[in-house]
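for the writeup, i need someone to sanity check this before i put it in the appendix. the sequnce is what the collaborator sent (i think, or maybe the updated version? ugh). structure was predicted straight from it, no edits. if anything looks off just tell me and ill rerun, i have time this weekend
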Amino acid sequence: MAWKPPPPAPGTLRPLTAEEEAVVRALPSLIYALPRAIEAEMTREQRLSNTEYLALMHLSEAPDRHLRMHELARACEMSLSGTTRIVHRMESEGLVDRVQCSTDGRSWHACLTDAGLTRLEEAWPTNLAAIRRHFLDHVKGLDLKELAAALQKVAMPPERRTRPRRDPPSPGE
């Protein structure tokens, strides 16, 4: 016999609808399966991990194609030590240079090389095809702007989520 939640007391939490339950149950599979599927294609076809691809992408979008290591770690949703390992590996392949910060001798920057940009351009079609095949093709017909906003809100730490706030009164009010 399957467990069923007890009926809620008046004024308490309301149970999930069938649609809400389906979404909540699908999330763990999505969180696990999507990155693995993209990673498998990137590794098989490009010999480049998806994390390496993301690091190259973020560096390509940064001013002067460089970021402080902690900024790159944040952009890639990785620890600083994990980012350092990836940058060292890509540095050994000539895709990235590590440069000491000129204003703070304790900080290092990861800088995308011309070879790194070329490698990103070569890997882009594989990444795009994998993202389309494993995700975007499955959400056709949904409002993607609304979906993106909702996913960003869910991923944001609670303390950074926007809350309705009143604007301060204008002078004279």
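The longest helix spans residues 18-46. Helices lie at 18-46, 50-61, 69-75, 80-92, 114-134, 144-155.
thx in advance!!
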